[in-house]
Each structure stands twice: as structure tokens, then as C-alpha cells.
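Re: the 434-residue chain
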Amino acid sequence: MNNKDMIKNKFIFTLFLLLLSDVSWAADTLDTGDSAWILTSTALVLFMTLPGLALFYGGLVRTKNVLSVLMQCFSIAAFASVVWFVIGYSLAFSEEGCFFVGGFDRAFLSGLTKSSVSGTLPESVFVMFQMTFAIITPALIVGGFAERMKFSSMLLFSMLWLLIVYIPTTHWVWGGGWLSQMGFYDYAGGTVVHINAGIAALVAALILGPRRGFGSSALMPHNLTMTVSGAAMLWVGWFGFNAGSALAANQDAGMAMLVTHLGAAGGVVSWMLMEWIRHGKPSVLGAVTGMVAGLGTITPASGYIGPAAGLCIGLTAGIICYFATALLKQKLRIDDSLDVMPVHGVGGILGTLCAGIFASESLGGFGFGDGNATMTDQVLVQLAGIGATIAWCAICTFILLKLVGLVTGGLRINSEEEVQGLDIISHDEAGYNL
């Protein structure tokens, strides 16, 4: 080989290395399209709590407690944001931790700058997106003890629960912890958000006991118009919740949005039909509850399945959560005030199982079979994740509630205060001045 050929070959080899380096560099470069979508999704998920969940829950309680529920959601949003900034993000997503929880190296968002990148996103956007999930999860639990917990007890419990229950579970599933290493499927929060919230609400309802008059008089929602308005906001905001969890503006996000909508629609249809068959008329409250059941159930599976599976999961959720609600309140006489366990908890369990079933290649168009495990193996992994989440949440929630009760002099307001309502007792204000 002469010198001319050697120079030519060196030039081609050098050019090849440069092209490879460019490809590698491009993979870690900020993508403005992805960033724009996740910025939008972040706003949508926060919109789910404020004002969506606040109005949804606010309309379901009685007039004398409407401000208390709005205040609980509002204050949780503020305090949880501070906890996330101080230590929450670090414990959930730091790479310096272990299989159980992250490290302390990102406390106070240490090392975060404008130029910090997480995948194709500014890291600040990823931090904020995950913060909105940390906000809505403890806010969901409010529905389990609505109208009877002290405000101070609620606030202290919510922040301790966020640290002890929510953040480790987040690390297990999304932060590189032991469940993610097992190949566990939870696309947007079946275990992290919905099972956790449902189990915590159930434990709280059992410890605090039922509201005054539960079982002997009707404790009716005071403003269903407010509830439907909040439910509509939740439906729209959920697109950020599920489609945003793709962390990119791509095909995964598009399919997650489609199956999320079909899941919600299926939940509405099946819950309405159940009421129509059993009671002769479909109720507005039933329709919006079915929607939330469908959305909560589709959440863990939304990134792994196709449209047919999405509708199937939604229809199934409406039926199963309908009977779970009746079982909890009418048969077991447990006053989970706003049905957090039968809707979010049961829906989360069902959806997490369905993620392992419908994503199997053997079901063809129902799912896409992205994983390597067989259906049986994947379902076993899903069951392990469900069981671990339930156990950790139930034990820690019980201990935290007992501890908070000791610190605050009791979790619950007394009977006279319950008659007056939390609006006056906790905030010296009234929701309506008519």
C-alpha cells in the first residue's frame, strides 16, 4: 500500500470516528420538542391537583367542610414542593443510593444548573415533572379521611408519608431500584401513585373511624357541579400524567394518550351501565367516579398496550371498582369518605396486573410485547411489586398515623367540632355566605 492510499484510509477512518462521536453527542443533546411536551405535561399534572382534584373532592364533601378540602390540597402542593426540593428528588432519583432508596448527593438540588440535561430534557423540567406526581399522591389520600382529621395532623402526616412511603417506592420503580431491575411494569404510577394512595386512605379510614352519622344518615355531596368540573379537569390533565411519562414527544406518548382516553371512556360506560342495570338510572356521580376508575386503572399499563387493551381495561375497571366501592362501604362499613381505596387502590392493583397481561406478545394487537419475559413470568413480577407496595405502605402508614397522633394530641377533631365543620374549626372561615 503506497502513502497516498494510507493517507486516504486514515482520512476515511477519522471521518468515521467523527460521525460516531456526532451520533453519540446527538443522543445526549437537548431536544426542544421533547422539552416543550414535558413542560406542557408538567402544567397538566399540576392542573390535576390544583384545581382539578381540589374541586372534585370539594364538591363531594358537605358544605361545612368544602374549604378544608380545598385548603388541604392547596397546602400539600406547597409543602410537598419544598420537601421535593430539599431531599425528595435526591432520595428518589439519585444514582448514589442503593436498591431501596437514593442518596443524599442531590439534596437541595445540588448540581442543578440551567444547562443540566436529563436524557433529552433540561433536568429542571424532569425535576418539576416528577414533583407534580409527588404533589398529587398525598393529596389523593385526603379523600380517605375527609371531614374529620385535624389540619395540623393532616399536614404532618402527609409530609412524613411522602418521605417514608412515596419516595422509596418511586426509587424502586422509576429511580433504578429493585423493582425496575426485575423488569417491573408501571408506566405512570399504578403502584407509586394509586396503590400507595388507596392503601394509605384505607388505613387512615380504619384508624380514624367513620364520620359522625355514617351508616345512619345520608352524607351527601354538597355540590356535584363542582365535582363534575373537577372531574373534567382530571380527565384532561391525565394526558400529561400518562403521555408525559414517555418523557418525549414520540410514538409512545401518542399511544399512551390514546389508550388513556379510551380507558377513561370505558370506565364511564361500564359504571353507568352497572347503575342503570341495578338501580334503573345512571348517576352523574357514578359517571365521574367511573372515569377516575378507568384513568387510575389504565395508568400503569398505558405505555405498554394498544387501543383495544385500553378500552378493555377501562370497561373492566368500571365494573370491578363499582363492586369494590359497594363492598367497602355497604358490606364492610368502612368510611373511606371519597372512595380512594376502591377506585384508586383497586384500580391500581387491577391496572398493574393488566400491564403484565396485555403487554404480552401472545395477545397481538392488544399489546406490543416490549419485554423479554413470558406473560406468566411478567405477572409474577407484577404481583411481587403489588405485594411489596401494599405491605410497605400499610405498615408505614399505620406507624406514621400513630406517631402523628401522639405528636399533635390526636388525629381527629371531637364530635362537637365535627358538627360545626372543619371550615370554621380549622380556618375560621366559611365556604359560602348565603
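The radius of gyration is 23 Å.
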